[in-house]
Amino acid sequence: MTARRGRDGTLSSLLLLAANLLIPAAILVFATGFFPYKPLLSGLATYDDVTEYGSPPEAPFDRLIFMVIDALRSDFVYAVNSGFEFTQSLIRDGAALPFTAHATSPTVTMPRLKAITTGSIPSFLDVVLNLDEGDESSSLASQDTWLAQMKAKGTGKLVMYGDDTWLKLFPGTFDRAEGTTSFFVSDFTEVDNNVTRHIPDELKRDDWNTMVLHYLGLDHIGHKGGPRSPHMVVKQREMDGIIRQIYTAIESEDHLRSTLFVFCGDHGMNDAGNHGASSPGETSPALVFMSPKLRELKSNLQSPMPENESFQYYSTVEQSDLAPTLAALLGFAVPKNNLGALIPEFLPFWPNKQDQLQLLMRNARQIRDIVLAAFGQEIFEIASNADTLTESKADYQELAHGWKRLADSYGRNTGNENHAKLIPSITKWLHHAQDVLSSMASNYDMSRLFLGQAAAAAALIAAVIAAARCANDKAASFIPLSGILLAYGVMMFASSYVEEEHHFWYWATTAWFAYLGVRGFKRGNTSAGLQTLSTTALLLATRIIRSWNQTGQKFAGEPDIVKMYLNTNPTLLWCLIGATYLWVHQNLIYGLTGLPIWLSFTTATGLVLAAFTFKTAFTLEDAPELVTDFARYLLKLNFTQDASLITRARAVFIGLALLTAVTILFMLARRRVSVGQNGPATLLTLYTLLALTQSRPQSIPLYLLFNLQHRILSSSSWLEENLSPVEVSTTALLLQHTAFFALGGTNSIASVDLSSAYNGVASYNVVAVGVLTFVGNWAGAVWWGLAAVGMLTQKRRGGDKEVGGGGLWKGHVAVLTVFVAGSVAAVMAACTVLRAHLFVWTVFSPKYLYCVAWSLGQHAVVNVVVGGVVYWLGSLEDDA
């Protein structure tokens, strides 16, 4: 019998290991087929069609200053209450021509800069590469861009100051450059001062033809405090002052008289100050062309404009339209991979209609070459049988036929009058081509998609067999988990359900607690009064948690507890924050009672006080309107009042690391660091302090509610009588997801919170920032992952031992692996089936990235590795 159990245990362990290795393998294989790089035309475009169209018309400008203000949403410049007062005066005067530039998803810096400089549509995979400062695989050094064209002109040097993403995208392109780290969002001032200090000297030089400036401070303010941060208008005025400085130099310096000054945002931001998704605020950056020469166009538009909820001010253009427009205005060939159309407002710069027509025809011919490269010459054959074409090829053939009609009309027509009639037709064809090519399906590798799904399916089968063999429970206990997984899998095929996934977890958790409560009544294990009270408390806490932060897409701006009560009543907020830290302080002292009383009290008090004062100082810097006078007074009383935020954060992290090390050493020595509780509970308290440090202040009181739920679930009346081992794992699964969404998480890239990603970090470090970003966004999920370890440790101490060749921990991991493998398979299947869906890049692809984070970060690292270590340490302590 013992030998059989040993064989069963070995087999289940091997199956569980195989499942957890297959999951990351499936993710990697599927990703390489779902996010491929699109093939591009190589080399630089040239004017090789002079015989057909004649010599290119003279360009009105010979020098370019291109200024990017990161996250410059359109209303920041154009609406009332804007800090860009000088810019608005130039719009009224006609010296500035404003637009709203449409930025396609993903609205993060790297893919947006690719679109701006090449005129093409970048790969969605760039949203991942955008996070790695050291990545060079996304370089545009070999691609045709307006930077490469300006360098090829040989009329001057290229200089760049600002976001070092430009240096990563264009290695070796700039003759003078100084980059600043784009991800250090705690810095509002130095990151911009390092750019501004170069401007006066460069404006006096005449050895350059292109100057790129990229300011990051406004984006950092958005991430930290949102678009209505008190720092926002101040930063806008600072940027407006720089614009005044540059424009004044263009007016006064002879060598700058023919300089085109363009400033724009690479993307916008949503109401939370984040970006990455496709909300109107994120996809609507400002775009302004400036020069005294623009007065010739006599635009003289109204400025400022009334507030517009859609953020659409003046004319709307695509970001890709910049490339052909700069080509015409600066006198170089349109980049080869461009999908943009020349902005028609600039055509009056060329009074001769023949010149206007020539510019548009060159733009159209360049786009025709992309169609030709994609489908070959046969697509242009009029005699092709349209019935044999796919829908996609039919779109391309329509473009080809439209081009042939334009070319024939161009060849037949002469004279300004006839050309004037042809110009609208070319413009219409350009925009149609832009729509068709921009919506072109990605070049999916279907074999990799299917192989990835097969690996995920194999992982699911292995996990199910392992769970059946090693989980210490009845078969009926798996029914709720099966229902959750089935409903979740079906939900992944509907975009609205993916966007509003939080409702699924809120309702499932509520139904689960109600079911457990009713079942407890039927079993009669505890008194009816206690069962009613505990069930009611669980349901009430869950209801409050789900109302704390409105997330998702459709109702993100609706009233919630944070907006209605905490943001408007800072006194209530800080009372709740203070109560949370006091609770942690009490738990920490209790968790260190194995130490001398003076040491445990002093250590716990010092660490909690350091964490509280850091959070107060952080909020005072980030959102001072939330800090009460009493909190400011307490901060002044503290002897560390002059310490920097970095020093404060490091003090908290060092203190947590030391106490964690002490607790682990006690557990390794098979001793208790606490007289009244086990080691995993003490480690949970220490992590709670880390979670509070990494959470926004408005979310801190949620941990009081998490603690209430945990106290009820880990009480003997529930844990020993109401919850079997599989049901403990099911509960942990539900509460991990509920906590993630309650703290503000969504399936949108824009909800990734970077506000606490640089706590204690003086310079960018991809590992440190990555870990802090994960903890900041998955803080609640990690909390419940560790809480589940404590609950399983209690069950082991209560008598649940090895069954079926497995154990409590192995069964817990097997249950969680079943869900993870099933969810990965469902998301992959949805992405494959709906790869031509309108929302594939705005809903399903971000969901896939979140699925990767849940599978590798939360499951593999937190639940399996960290949880396994803590459980093992707890077993050493119990064996003492």
UniProtKB/TrEMBL annotation:
It comes from Parachaetomium inaequale. One of its GO terms (biological process) is GPI anchor biosynthetic process. It is found in: Endoplasmic reticulum membrane. CDD domains: GPI_EPT_2 (cd16024). SUPFAM superfamilies: Alkaline phosphatase-like (SSF53649). Belongs to the PIGG/PIGN/PIGO family. PIGG subfamily. GO terms for cellular component: endoplasmic reticulum membrane. This is GPI ethanolamine phosphate transferase 2. The lineage of its organism: Eukaryota, Fungi, Dikarya, Ascomycota, Pezizomycotina. PANTHER family: GPI ETHANOLAMINE PHOSPHATE TRANSFERASE 2, PHOSPHATIDYLINOSITOL GLYCAN-RELATED. Pathway: Glycolipid biosynthesis; glycosylphosphatidylinositol-anchor biosynthesis. It is a multi-pass membrane protein.
